[in-house]
Design brief:
By secondary structure, the protein is of the alpha/beta class. The chain has 4 helices and 8 strands. It has one domain: ABC-type transport auxiliary lipoprotein component (Rossmann fold, 3-Layer(aba) Sandwich).
Length: 172
């Protein structure tokens, strides 16, 4: 008898929590004609973004990383068609790399020339951009691109979560 009640209670809690869970989609883009090492950095950055959002209770999904012309504008309507159901929010990350790898003397190898990261957070239901920031990646003290990914992904996630919480309070 206890087992039935326990299972019912757990099921009820899970359903209740899922009703209050926010969903977030991550879409990462990089410029065209770049080295595969740049694509690896984009993938690593995207992977690192998942954990802080999961830990904060979000259901997170992503689009496959894609190449994009530098001047091409990213339209929300084009992104929406990739989802069966829209997310509450979408985090659009646009990486700009130099065309060629650069040799780093300290690491003694060629690494991606990561120039900028533009981050935009959009409320899907309103279509409004509620957060945008451009990071100058040359200003980060980390030299190794993977370390840079770790640092900037934590900062992006923290600021995006704060913005989402403000947006939820504003729309209550």
């Amino acid at each position: 008898m206890f087992k039935k009640y326990f299972c019912f209670a757990v099921f009820t809690v899970i359903l209740t929590l899922s009703a209050f869970t926010e969903t977030l989609a991550i879409a990462c883009f990089q410029n065209e004609e770049i080295d595969d090492k740049c694509r690896n950095v984009t993938g690593k950055f995207e992977d690192l973004l998942f954990e802080p959002f999961f830990e904060s209770g979000f259901i997170v999904t992503s689009l496959p990383s894609a190449d994009l012309e530098p001047q091409k504008e990213i339209k929300l309507g084009e992104i929406e068609k990739f989802f069966e159901e829209p997310s509450d929010y979408i985090l659009i990350c646009r990486m700009q790399y130099g065309k060629d790898l650069v040799f780093n003397k300290i690491l003694d190898r060629k690494i991606p020339d990561w120039k900028t990261l533009k981050v935009s957070l959009v409320n899907f239901s309103t279509g409004k951009e509620i957060y945008t920031k451009i990071f100058d990646m040359t200003k980060f003290k980390e030299i190794d691109p993977e370390k840079k990914c770790e640092t900037v992904s934590v900062q992006v996630a923290k600021e995006a979560i704060e913005t989402i919480n403000k947006d939820k309070r504003r729309n209550k």
